[in-house]
Amino acid sequence: MANLSDIEKLFSTLSRGEKAQILKWAVRDLGDDFPGIDSRPDVCRGEPCIVRTRIPVWLLEHGPAAGLQ
Length: 69
Known about the structure:
69 residues; mainly alpha; 2 domains; two-stranded antiparallel sheet; 3 helices
């Protein structure tokens, strides 16, 4: 099996249409994953947050108990 650097070299030789087809396959393959939660060190001190927001997951979990709605 090829490693990522081999794939990167091969990817650079493909046409735009071939690259688009590969992206389509990748999106279809990853379609079952929920991309809505992300954890990045530069956002909310690395706490898991809703993607493209700064709403931490812990707030959604504990908010109702604290009276937040």
